[in-house]
Write a structure and sequence with these properties.
The chain is an alpha/beta fold. Helix content is 62%, strand content 11%. It contains 17 helices and 15 strands. The strands form three sheets. A six-stranded antiparallel beta sheet has the order 2-1-4-5-6-7, with helices on one face. A six-stranded mixed beta sheet has the order 8-12-13-3-14-15. A three-stranded antiparallel beta sheet has the order 9-10-11. A hairpin with a 6-residue loop joins strand 14 and strand 15. Helix 6 packs antiparallel against helix 13 and helix 7 runs antiparallel to helix 13. The longest helix is centred in the middle third of the chain and has 110 residues. The chain is flat. About 1% of the residues have low confidence.
Length: 814
């Protein structure tokens, strides 16, 4: 993995967005991350591990939410982005925190994460549609080939963590090495072999138990004894078969004798049955004779049946005409009711018209009186008006001048004033009122003519339909507008009444004719009945039979005679067959057969029991033999595999997993010793402790340091702080190199060392720089986190972390 760009904001002590381009350090290979204590140097490494795995570089800073900067405002999101490349392909992992305010005013942090790969166009494309925390972590492990813990041990050497491998005991060191080198497979292989050996042991024991169970079921102590028991069962089977054959022969003979006797007995039983059947059929003789007599009387009745049918036909016609007469009579009564109702309506209309005529006469008299009054008033007003007009004219006359009316020049008697002051308008109004009264009189005269016409028409209709009816005395009134309606109703009712009366008369005449014809036909029929012995019509009807009934009766008679004849012939045949024979007693023979069958059943049961036992023993022998064979095979396989599994498990020495881890640790110490030659003039060398001292302890993975000055080995815990740092650094770098070589092609192009240099003297720092310089080169980057001044003087390329009130910031120096 090669880091390319790391950016973060509102993260830890950093508020503003910070970005580090690691490509600027590729020429130098070694760079320093320095700054004041608490400025946020380790936070740079945390940004990587949080982006990839959601954890800090040291594993103790909490979840991602704990890394949000306390100085960041709510509207600013916490963001971390890490771009890196593996085998020429670029990837980007991001994480983000957003502040959300709930409805109740409380605030919460919402986290988001994502992972991208760069496509051919140079754009980053997400791996997932809905990325989750687990998805992102698994994708990081898949791409890097390392878990978060392995990432810390191989790529990051966290503060206070990289010395753990050096001073850890065998048990703790085993857990670290198993994780780094995936040594679980060796333990899994060992466990699988042990499990397989245990399975074989259980299979062997199962076969042994199976054989014991089979032998116990048959009371045998060995397979050979079981085989002898089977031979004994075979002998018993042969004897049972011979006895079964004898009982079968005796049973056959007894059954044959019983069958012969049963045949004779059946003939006697059939004879008895035939005799009984003849008696049963003969019992129907009287019934058959009655049936024959009934058929004879039915034939006599059939001769006169046409006469009865003819009378019945006439009677039916008579009934039809009686129904028509009743219906016509009913319609006649209904017609009379309807006509009476229509006449009553016409009379009511007539009364209404007469009343209107009387009212019209009275109104006309009143109008004539009003007209006389108005004419007198008009005459008086006209005369007054003319008098006033003459007076007005006389006022303009002068003696000697001609009068405009008469032409006289003398005016001896001029007209006087009327004193009523009548105007022309008043005269015209009086005349107009007379004209109005004339119009009303004329209208009344026309209406009177209409009423006169209606009255005459109504009276004519009443007289037409009311010849035989009483004079109307009703008081009801009817509108004259319904005159036409009720006249039509009266016409319709009158016509219907006439039709019903004619129908009634016709039906009455036909009924009288048919009554005479029916009486004559019945007289002829009765004479025929008496001639054939039928005294009453009921006797005749009781003797009548339908064709189907007569046919069925004749068939029953014929069947009787046929059955009787067949039964008699059968009885005669059976009597001939049993002539000279005695009816056998089959009970004794039946008992003998039952005894033979019981013997046969016993022999069959015995044979089946022997065969079943022989079969069970035979099956048991087969199973026991097969189990014995499999037991021998499984026992040999188990012994071989059990010895090998215990050897790999380390029951008598070092197990496979511990051996492999020892080899890996030796390779690590070899790499470390190569680096330690550059420190303290090559004074110290690392060695694994001797293996195989006791089975109860996890041994073989402890480390000792060889001190060239004393010429002896001693515990690594005895080293001073500075010495321990250099040895642990060499061991960690050696571990990184071995892991890289053993991790399936994983290439580690960057390493970060966090602190630890503060405990070193200048000479040890130079040694440490020499150690680090020996592993850098090419494209590999080595980053050191420290605030030691001597490192600043020797390492030009650096990332300076400046601590300020508003939050830390990063300055890259090349």
């Amino acid at each position: 993995m090669t880091p390319e760009i790391l950016s973060f904001e509102a993260f830890g002590p950093y508020v503003k967005k910070q970005e580090i381009d690691f490509s600027v350090f590729r020429k130098t290979g070694l760079f320093l991350i320095h700054g004041r204590t608490g400025a946020g140097k380790t936070t740079v490494l945390d940004a990587m591990t949080y982006a990839l795995f959601g954890e800090s570089s040291g594993g103790g800073r909490g979840d991602f939410a704990a890394m949000r900067s306390d100085f960041a405002p709510d509207e600013q999101n916490t963001c971390v982005s890490f771009v890196f490349s593996i085998r020429g392909k670029r990837y980007k992992f991001t994480r983000e925190l957003r502040v959300r305010t709930k409805r109740n005013g409380e605030k919460e942090l919402q986290a988001a994460q994502d992972a991208f790969f760069e496509d051919e166009a140079g754009s980053f494309v997400p791996f997932f549609e809905n990325p989750g925390i687990k998805n992102i972590r698994q994708k990081a492990e898949e791409l890097l080939g390392l878990t978060c813990e392995q990432f810390r041990q191989v790529i990051l050497l966290p503060q206070g963590k990289f010395e753990e491998l050096l001073v850890a005991d065998s048990a703790a060191k085993e857990e670290i090495l198993v994780t780094l080198f995936k040594a679980e497979q060796w333990q899994e292989l060992t466990d699988w072999l042990c499990d397989r050996a245990n399975d074989l042991k259980r299979e062997k024991e199962a076969h042994e138990q199976k054989i014991r169970s089979i032998l116990e079921q048959h009371a045998c102590d060995s397979v050979e004894a079981l085989r002898g028991s089977l031979e004994e069962m075979r002998k018993q089977e042969a004897g049972a078969k011979a006895r079964q054959k004898d009982t079968a022969t005796h049973l056959g003979q007894a059954r044959a004798a019983l069958q012969d006797a049963q045949t004779v007995k059946n003939l006697f039983d059939e004879r008895d049955g035939a005799e009984t059947k003849c008696m049963q059929i003969a019992g129907r003789e009287k019934e058959t004779a009655l049936l024959e007599e009934k058929i004879s009387r039915a034939l006599l009745a059939e001769e006169i049946l046409p006469l009865r049918k003819e009378a019945a036909q006439i009677q039916g016609q008579k009934q039809q005409w009686e129904e028509k007469q009743r219906q016509a009579e009913h319609e006649k009564l209904e017609g009379e009711k309807r006509l009476a109702q229509a006449v009553q309506r016409l009379q009511a209309v007539f009364r209404s018209i007469r009343e209107e005529q009387a009212a019209l006469v009275k109104a006309a008299a009143q109008l004539k009186g009003q007209k006389a009054i108005r004419e007198a008033e008009y005459q008086k007003a006209f005369e007054a008006y003319m008098k006033d007009a003459a007076f007005a004219l006389s006022e303009g006359l002068t003696e000697g001048q001609a009068c405009p009316v008469c032409g006289s020049e003398h005016h001896p008697s001029p007209a006087r004033h009327s004193e009523t002051n009548t105007t022309l308008e008043q005269v015209n109004a009086a005349k107009k009122e007379i004209g109005r009264i004339d119009k009303q009189l004329l209208a009344q005269e026309k209406e009177g003519l209409v009423l006169q016409h209606l009255s005459q028409a109504c009276e004519t209709s009443i007289e037409r339909y009311c010849k035989d009816q009483k004079q109307d005395t009703g008081t009801a009134r009817e509108d004259k507008a319904n005159l036409k309606k009720w006249t039509a109703a009266a016409d319709e009712a009158f016509q219907a009444l006439q039709a019903a009366a004619a129908a009634y008369d016709l039906a009455k005449q036909e009924n009288e004719k048919l009554q005479s014809a029916f009486a004559a036909a019945m007289d002829v029929f009765k004479e025929a009945c008496l001639a054939r012995g039928f005294q009453t019509d009921e006797q005749f009807r009781a003797s009548c039979m339908s064709k189907e009934e007569r046919t069925a009766a004749q068939a029953s008679i014929q069947d009787y005679h046929v059955q009787l004849k067949v039964a008699q012939q059968a009885l005669e045949n059976l009597e001939g067959k049993i002539a000279g024979l005695q009816k056998p007693d089959t009970q004794a023979l039946q008992k003998e057969v039952e005894e033979r069958e019981r013997e046969k059943q016993e022999t069959d049961t015995l044979l089946a029991s022997v065969q079943a036992k022989a079969g069970l023993i035979g099956d048991a022998l087969k199973k026991a033999s097969a189990a014995q064979k499999e037991l021998e095979e499984k026992a040999a396989e188990y012994v071989e595999l059990d010895v090998f599994a215990k050897l790999l498990r380390g029951d008598k020495g070092v197990g496979l997993k511990r051996y492999v881890l020892g080899v890996m640790l030796s390779a690590i110490t070899g790499q470390a010793n190569r680096l330690l030659k550059k420190a303290h003039d090559g004074r110290y060398q690392l060695y694994r402790t001797a293996e195989g001292q006791g089975r109860a302890r996890k041994v073989g993975l402890d480390l000792e340091v060889f001190d060239a000055y004393s010429g002896e080995r001693r515990s690594v815990k005895s080293l001073s702080g500075g010495e321990k740092f250099l040895v642990a650094l060499s061991l960690s770098l050696g571990l990184s190199a071995v892991v890289q070589a053993q991790s399936g092609g994983i290439r580690i192009d960057a390493m970060f060392v966090d602190e630890g240099f503060g405990s070193l003297d200048p000479s040890s720092i130079e040694n440490a720089l020499d150690i680090l310089a020996s592993i850098r080169g090419g494209q590999r980057l080595v980053g050191i986190i420290s605030h030691v001044q001597l490192l600043k003087e020797n390492i030009d390329a650096s990332i300076e972390v400046r601590k300020q009130r508003a939050g830390s910031e990063i300055v890259v120096n090349i």
